[in-house]
Design brief:
Blueprint: H1 19-23, E1 37-40, H2 48-52, E2 70-74, E3 77-87, E4 90-98
Antiparallel strand pairs: 1-2, 2-3, 3-4
Amino acid sequence: MTDLSDAPTAPRTDRRDNKNIAAAPNFDLLAGVSLRVSVEVGSTSMTLAELLAIDEGSVIELDRAATDLLDIYANGTLIAKGEIVSVDGRYGIQVAEVVAPARGLEGFERRG
């Protein structure tokens, strides 16, 4: 058996600490990738009986106030919070805050 403890080892590099990679990310490869962006106004839990009793005119109470910011998700991952706006007679979302981009994925919350 050969003892490799004296053999020179290749320097370990952490790709996240490599300034060249961080300074010039190559997003061209991913620029055309489609993501599903959705906005969550709120949510609630209800029984199957309550769900089946819903009819036209029914009101479903949600878990947040009308003044709260809405959650903006990309492929199920929380990326920002925003407010509803009207754009040429259609709904739009004005981004009020982006969720912790500098912290990487640890600041993001995945919707279940």
